[in-house]
Amino acid sequence: MTGIDSLNDYYGRRLKEDRLSELHRTADRLGADFAFVHGNLADPSAVASSFASRRFDRVIHLAAQAGVRYAAENPQAYVESNLTGFTNILEACRHAGVAHLTYASSSSVYGANTRMPYSEHHSADHPLQFYAATKRANELMAHAYSHLFGLPTTGLRFFTVYGPWGRPDMALFTFTRNIIEGKPVELFNGGNHRRDFTYIDNIVDGVIRASDAAATPDPAWNSAAPDPATSSAPYRIFNIGNRQPVRIGDYVKAIEHRLGKKAEIILRPAQPGDMTDTFADITAIEEATGYHPTVSIEQGVGAFVDWYRTYFGV
Question: What's the count of helices (H) and strands (E) in the chain, helices before strands?
């Protein structure tokens, strides 16, 4: 196994380096052969070099410039990482004859669509943020390579991933830190947004299951009534969610319960570009791979809070 990452400065490097150390320790404990390459996927020579020195039968592409609001400040970072970087991965997989490329998309691609639960068979052509637009572009780029070059590709629309070792700009990290430090917690839209929070262990299980089952052409695909989730090419899209939407306000209550401490809440109006709710229909990935989420919000939030206290010593 080989991992490639630029360890950029979008947030502090310490957490990224500690994650990497934990990954090496886990690989050693399991007797796995793991190598890390410090490189930028937006650099075609770095990607080509990595593929030339190793033989990959599967590629799982999770690298991206994340964060929906940062895109308003620095859209070029999303172009470089999410579009240029993904193009380099597609080209490398094509020329290396990779058997299957699995890549991260996002539930944010559903954008202005309010038909719930979100299904891969619904339209996803009205994104509300530039980040979402780049992830939708990834899906279309992947389809072109699947069609032109027969590269099997599977896009995974993640629904609000959370858990230990998560990003410090995510709500769970911010809420937990602020409650511990006695700082107020801001809830937008009166805390009434609902999110289909999906615990990291369930996400990992879905990614592995999807990667192990290479995409194939859909023999029932009809060009006169095209299904957005499949194709006559070896291409498909899956949601990976928990199928259990939770109010943000109730999410905070789960953190309060685990910490044994009440939050000071400040209610704010909704922010531009925010999706009111997310709710995943996961029938397709369940039927294709046997994926089934098992971790409740209480269990997942509890595991994160315990990790946070241990990691930061609070």
Answer: 10, 12
**Torsion of Cα atoms, 186 then 273 then 202 then 229, to 10°:** 170
188 in helix, strand or coil? strand
Can you say how many angstroms the Cα of residue 222 is from the centroid of all Cα atoms in its chain?
29
**pLDDT grade for 66, boundaries at 50, 70 and 90:** confident
Distance CA 213, CA 152 (A): 10
Convert the pLDDT of each residue in 17-40 to its tens digit: 999 999 999 999 999 999 999 999
Output phi, psi for 25, to 5 deg.
Answer: -60, -40
Told to judge if 131 belongs to the known catalytic residues of this protein, a careful annotator would answer yes
Distance (Å, whole) CA 306 – CA 136: 35
- CA–CA distance, 296 with 285 (Å, rounded to integer): 19
SS3 content of the chain, % helix, strand, coil (to 5): 45, 15, 40
Q: What is the pLDDT of residue 302?
A: 97
**252 in Cβ contact with 187 (< 8 Å):** yes
Closest CA to 204 of 245, 166, 244, 252: 166
Helices (H), the chain: 13-30, 44-53, 75-78, 85-96, 130-149, 171-181, 200-212, 248-259, 283-289, 297-312
pLDDT at 273 over 80: no
Which of 78, 103, 131, 308 is catalytic? The answer is: 131
Per DSSP bridges, beta strands 58-61 and 35-38 are unpaired
Residue pLDDT, tens place only, 98-150: 999 999 999 999 999 999 999 999 999 999 999 999 999 999 999 999 999 99
> 159 by DSSP, 3-state: which?
coil
The DSSP secondary structure of 212-225, one letter per residue, reads: HS-----TT--TTS
**Mean pLDDT, range 152-168, rounded to an integer:** 97
Task: Report which of 197, 202, 281, 282 is spatially closest to residue 247, judged by C-alpha positions.
Answer: 197
